[in-house]
């Protein structure tokens, strides 16, 4: 590598960057012939940092800066390289060598250039770059993934009105990238503050993607070899947890966002009218998204069983539901219940539905006692009470321990059959079943 470095030092910045890609292409191509997963050692990474990210090797030396035109030319060189390289394994390892965070001073330059490269790939539809970015998102800590998501949202949903149409086209170009993008976006916009509510254009695009083909959000899960224990600090296999957070918190987050109108006559009326229209649009989108999420959850039982993961892998972690419930409780307390009763009711209804379907399909692994403890501090909600206190028949899946929520299509005890003890309580009236999801009924229980 030292000989290559001395050769590159005699070249201008763009020629050196192009040549270092050429040398590393040859280097890793030969490595891949002897090992399917070659280790990226320090030498190639240092060459990339010095001649692509312009981070000087000598301590104390001033970093070089490319002007805007040179940076654009560098992005074109990189886009062309990934487009022309036909071997996916070589593309992936070069992309990883370029953009995997190293925990050093080059990471800021690395992330800045990555955001611009992926943004350019979206604009000119360079699918190989998008596929490499999807793999990068899957194996990179979430703190870096949200930085890439932020860069793309700024470029296509905030800076230029109407540019989101270009990003929408990625649905057919690279569904795998879209799945990872949704996961990182839901990690970025957690609705914890008004600034972290997703822009309306972004929300509409994601909802339409999922509504058009709900399997989109399962692409990573369905095409990835999975261990029972997932790594901590990385993006989840699906965006389901983040999407549930969006649907459940949205009514309360948007209610919190509303501010009392100022007494400025017709201007105030116009602003209030425009804001009301935007709120109506967003509420409809969240309702549509909630329906799609429930439909995906109902599909998961089949996929988990096919992968022999039913009862062994929770795609929605109970530990992630705990902060969600705490946030709902805090928002409900923060908002005046007298002025936000409808929003609180809607939020809790969505939470109850998501929990019930997730547990029934095996996506959320927890006991009814866990759920009761989790939801004990929430405001009263009839639907949520039915979910946490309804009967739980024994699951036909031996992998699930007793007390875990059953397969969604298993009828409850006594459903369509003669009761085991018909005369046990002859004086008590029979209450009708309250249907929540087709095929699953809950007998009436008094609220204690």
Automatic annotation (TrEMBL):
A GO CC term attached to the entry: integrator complex
PANTHER family: INTEGRATOR COMPLEX SUBUNIT 15
Gene Ontology process terms (BP): brain development; eye development; mRNA splicing, via spliceosome; RNA polymerase II transcription initiation surveillance
Protein name: Integrator complex subunit 15
